[in-house]
Write a structure and sequence with these properties.
Order of helices and strands: HHHHHHHEHHEHHHH
Strand content: under 5%
Radius of gyration: 20 Å
CATH topology of the largest domain: Peroxidase, domain 1
Strand order of the largest sheet: 1-2
Distance between the termini: 15 Å
Oligomer: single chain
């Protein structure tokens, strides 16, 4: 009840001072009194899953990005489709988002520890923080206190695609109050771990932009390897060819050698708007590590439209 009243007071405050940004409600250690074990339970369960499958880190990063970019960070991506509503998770762009079961398991453990206190939106954020750390990224404090969203519509899902231009993706970030630098960090750095299936870059291998020829900007050795890999099937390949499970700046070094898998990744190194940032990040891993975390926290603070703490992350109360 105490946590519910705390969230209620926050909502009342925002209704009165409606001009203030919603993320003013967030604070590091939000659950220190209402659910002191929350920031221990989440890391333990993510660690267990990571021990079984290291790719879970990339999956959580992807889930966090896909959630925050639609209605802010409000866990709307977790809501299941019903007979009268197709939810975000069933939009085409979210077809490869996974680890919903892990979020369910974490939520169940938190409910046993402190009933209806920790929001699903904060679970995603805390789990992503752990994913970054487990992948070799820095450990960082993340503010919590988000509320869970009441709305989830597949029709609202409009995410940058693998063939988007730098200008298009930059505009998508700008409309959410984020900068070009944030974009280069989150798009490039977010692909430091994880894979892409052939269908996301197949056109670069044979019929780039309808030319009937491969993408001339792709490294020839990489092109040959990917052509042999894809064939008539749809397997996947690591986006970072060298340090595939480590969240570091190596992806930017590969982009400078024209070894980007996705078109948008390679465009980061080719477009004059973003190329200087790629060069700076490629040259300094410490700069990348701290800058990536800062951009991730900034994205995590995008104000959501949440209004409750779900007991079940897959449906409204």
């Amino acid at each position: 009840m105490g946590s519910f009243l705390k969230h209620l007071n926050i909502v009342s405050f925002m209704l009165i001072f409606f001009a203030l940004p919603l993320n003013l409600a967030l604070q590091v250690g939000f659950y220190s009194s209402s659910c002191p074990n929350a920031e221990n339970i989440v890391p333990q369960m993510v660690q267990q899953r990571f021990n079984a499958d290291r790719s879970v880190a990339a999956a959580l990063l992807r889930m966090h990005f896909h959630d925050c970019f639609i209605r802010g960070c409000d866990a709307s991506i977790l809501i299941d489709t019903t007979s009268n509503n197709q939810a975000e998770k069933d939009a085409g762009a979210n077809g490869t988002v996974r680890e919903y079961a892990l979020i369910d398991q974490i939520k169940a453990a938190l409910e046993r520890s402190c009933n209806q206190t920790v929001s699903c939106a904060d679970i995603i954020t805390l789990a992503t923080r752990e994913a970054v750390s487990l992948s070799g990224g820095p450990r960082y404090n993340v503010p919590t206190g988000r509320l869970d969203g009441l709305i989830s519509r597949a029709a609202e899902v409009n995410l940058p695609g693998p063939s988007s231009t730098v200008s298009q993706i930059n505009q998508a970030f700008r409309t959410r109050g984020m900068t070009l630098n944030d974009m280069v960090l989150l798009v490039g750095g977010g692909h430091s771990i994880g894979v892409a299936h052939c269908n996301f870059f197949q056109d670069r291998l044979s019929n780039f932009q309808g030319t009937g020829a491969p993408d001339s900007t792709m490294d020839r050795a990489l092109l040959t390897r990917l052509q042999g890999l894809c064939g008539n099937a749809n397997p996947s390949t690591f986006l970072d060819q060298n340090t595939s499970f480590v969240l570091d700046n190596e992806i930017y070094n590969q982009l400078r050698k024209n070894r980007g898998i996705l078109q948008i990744d390679q465009e980061l190194a080719l477009d004059p708007l973003s190329a200087p940032m790629v060069s700076n990040l490629a040259a300094n891993n410490n700069l990348f590590r701290q800058s990536f975390v800062n951009a991730l926290i900034k994205m995590g603070n995008l104000p959501g439209t949440g209004g409750e703490i779900r007991k079940n992350c897959r449906k409204r109360n």
